[in-house]
Design a protein that fits this description.
The chain is α+β, with helices and mostly antiparallel strands and about 230 residues long. About 30% of the residues lie in helices and about 20% in strands. This is Putative gamma-glutamylcyclotransferase.
């Protein structure tokens, strides 16, 4: 499976189908009163629509047709950067490099403040979100040479954690993506996003009966009880 087949069905105008509900951000948006639209350049696992959807909407596929129409995805190139493998990880890193270096990825328009909030959590402290200019693939001859401003996540966790080899998107899709969003999916950072969204909606801050903190306390209590029992 190549990149074109993954984003082709996603490329459409930003509008809602006539029979669909109004285009609004998902109910989990922590910024319900804002309508800011963001454009981001993705070069790794988030180039795969199922992974992107899982991060911003909580499911590997759009929850409704209206959600599907919110994003416009196009192939693009980021110059002056290089993409490399991260040691022991399925995902890559992008770092500044020589002017002739380039990274191919996807340009995603229509992201909300809430989407970016989730993406920041997903990327974590290993990356820093920065403003860049990317060239839209196939639009080189248009005004401005097809360049647009976007945001991307640049690796800041140190060169010592990177391998010299280029990261392979096709290999990720064929060999790795199943454990991110397939039936055998592992956490892969999604839990941090889910917990953050739950905390926004939970007035107890995770301390309620089914909250994350409550579960940790319950586990700790059982372990303490077991330890006391074995000491008798």
């Amino acid at each position: 499976m190549d990149l074109a087949s993954l984003y082709a069905h996603q490329t459409r105008k930003r509008r809602c189908p006539p029979s669909s509900p109004p285009c609004t951000s998902p109910s989990t948006n922590p910024y319900p009163s804002t309508t800011m639209s963001h454009t981001a350049f993705f070069y790794g696992t988030l180039m795969a629509p199922p992974v992107l959807h899982r991060v911003i909407w909580g499911t590997a596929s759009p929850p409704t047709p209206a959600h599907a129409s919110l994003l416009a995805i196009r192939p693009a190139i980021l110059h002056g950067h290089v993409r490399r493998r991260v040691k022991g990880a399925d995902y890559p890193a992008v770092t500044p490099s020589s002017a002739e270096s380039e990274v191919r990825g996807t340009l995603v328009a229509g992201l909300t403040d809430g989407d970016v909030w989730r993406l920041d959590i997903f990327e974590g402290s290993e990356y820093e979100r920065r403003h860049v200019r990317v060239r839209v693939w196939g639009e080189e001859g248009k005004g401005g040479k097809g360049e647009v401003e976007a945001q991307t996540y640049v690796w800041v966790a140190g060169e010592q954690r990177l391998e010299p080899q280029e990261w392979d998107f096709d290999h990720f899709v064929k060999e790795k993506m199943g454990r991110w969003v397939g039936e055998e999916a592992e956490d892969e950072g999604f839990k941090d996003v889910d917990d953050a969204v739950d905390a926004m909606q939970d007035p107890t801050g995770g301390r309620g009966l089914n909250g994350d903190i409550a579960r940790q306390l319950e586990t700790g209590g059982k372990e303490a009880e077991k330890a006391l029992g074995s000491a008798v």
